[in-house]
Design brief:
The protein is α/β, with parallel strands linked by helices. It is built from 17 helices and 13 strands.
Length: 429
């Protein structure tokens, strides 16, 4: 997510933009999308550091088949604010040819920059639900990157060492397991709460996903008929947050994404709130680690809690205003990535992706333990929705800052919901 990432320590407006700057982007300087010798350079601005190396290798394979096409990839993630960095690229007239978009409200916001991809060959193979976030006025503006899910990833060997026989599916069971782990000398949780996406996006999403009708609740927030303050689901999410802090690593507010995953992958802690996108990083640190998922329970109702939060993390989009040669190469690459044998193999076996396309087989293809569990929960219908793409633009860093303030004891249980409501009212359109 991996996903929009923000740093509490560095602040919301950032200096963190520099963290992802690993190359120049010269789209604006390349007026016709090609050089004198016919070479096309496709500039890609993407936010998933977890597969940056694998993605570079895949673009190299494409170049082997299409020698006139080269790629310039810039990755902004792992603590940096991708959205702000992307806006900075456009503001400085260094517009990428391919970039990421979360869909729903974000798709509407960026619509005048997005190429209509409705006529692309891959559309017929995409799961209908996977293209929904990027469908605006009946047109499809983005290719789903993959399907992802998250919960508490746990170390099965450490659970066995602590003599925990069953995975906890309720909040009480989760606390009982945490006590056993602590008694065995094992830190239960690795909390990366320096990252707003961990606490103010993925954790907070539980309060929305557990509503009877998340979309209706969001509509109610927009029209003022409901509030986060006084909503029982959000109060229960704070019970879960309190538990993770009580049984977690020291200094969670200065623990960033990389540190959080490393603490877990080296066996120093038993659980972490993350998703299947961490599989490549875990494999790199500790190959063959025995891991799985535990649902994020907020109360003691097992049926309501025995679910993982699953959705499309982001989408590949093509810059509508890019030079024509760049656009055509970009669209051809995206189609090749999900239709060619080389592309499909890389997505499943190297990226450990759960494909959003029916034409890409996954059985026995090495998507990893975490990916296999996401597929299992999906097939059993044990899923909760992702809702942050429907939140007001710019809300995640502010939500994250408020929840970080709660962990730091700068806001109490009465003040935090008010702060979340104030953010929503201020930023809604």
């Amino acid at each position: 997510m991996r996903f929009r990432k923000y740093s509490f320590v560095a602040g919301i407006l950032s200096a963190t933009l520099l963290l992802g700057a690993c190359g120049s982007n010269n789209t604006s300087e390349n007026s016709n999308g090609s050089s004198d010798n016919g070479e096309v350079v496709v500039d890609i601005f993407q936010f998933k550091p977890e597969f940056a190396d694998q993605f570079k290798a895949l673009t190299d394979k494409y170049t082997e088949e299409h020698p006139n096409v080269k790629f310039n990839i810039q990755t902004v993630g792992g603590g940096a604010d991708y959205g702000a960095a992307l806006k900075a690229q456009f503001a400085s007239n260094k517009q990428p040819d391919i970039f990421n978009n979360g869909g729903y409200q974000e798709a509407v916001t960026w619509k005048d920059k997005l190429e209509d991809l409705s006529d692309q060959p891959w559309v017929k193979d995409a799961y209908p639900s996977a293209v929904e976030p990027m469908t605006v006025d009946g047109k499809i503006y983005g290719q789903p990157v993959n399907l992802e899910g998250y919960g508490f990833i746990y170390n099965k060997d450490l659970f066995e060492k602590a003599e925990i026989k069953e995975i906890p599916k309720t909040l009480s069971e989760l606390e009982a397991a945490s006590k056993k782990l602590k008694a065995a000398g094992i830190t239960p949780f690795s909390n990366g709460y320096a990252e707003a996406f961990v606490i103010g996006q993925h954790l907070l999403n539980l309060g929305f996903a557990q509503q009877d009708d998340p979309d209706a609740f969001i509509q109610g927030l927009n029209n003022g008929s409901v509030t986060i303050e006084g909503n029982e689901k959000f109060n229960l999410v704070l019970d879960l947050l309190d538990l993770t802090v009580k049984y977690g690593n020291k200094n969670p507010l200065t623990t960033d994404y990389n540190t959080q995953v490393t603490l877990f992958a080296t066996g120093e802690v038993a659980m972490m709130q993350q998703g299947n996108w961490t599989q490549p990083m875990i494999d790199k640190i500790t190959p063959g680690m025995n891991i799985g998922f535990i649902p994020m329970a907020i109360n003691d109702e097992e049926e309501a809690n025995d679910k993982l939060q699953i959705g499309v993390p982001s989408n590949w989009v093509v810059n509508k205003n890019a030079p024509s040669a760049d656009k055509e190469a970009a669209k051809d690459f995206l189609n090749w990535m999900v239709s060619s044998e080389e592309g499909q193999k890389a997505l499943v076996e190297e990226f450990k992706f759960i494909p959003a396309f029916s034409n890409i087989p996954v059985e026995g293809k090495g998507i990893g333990q975490l990916g296999e569990e996401i597929v299992k929960y999906s097939n059993e219908g044990k899923t909760l929705s992702w809702n942050w793409f429907k939140w007001p633009e710019g809300s995640i860093p502010e939500f994250g800052a408020s929840l970080q303030g709660y962990v730091a004891k700068q806001l109490d249980r009465d003040e935090l919901p008010k702060a979340l409501d104030e953010t929503w009212i201020k930023l809604k359109k």
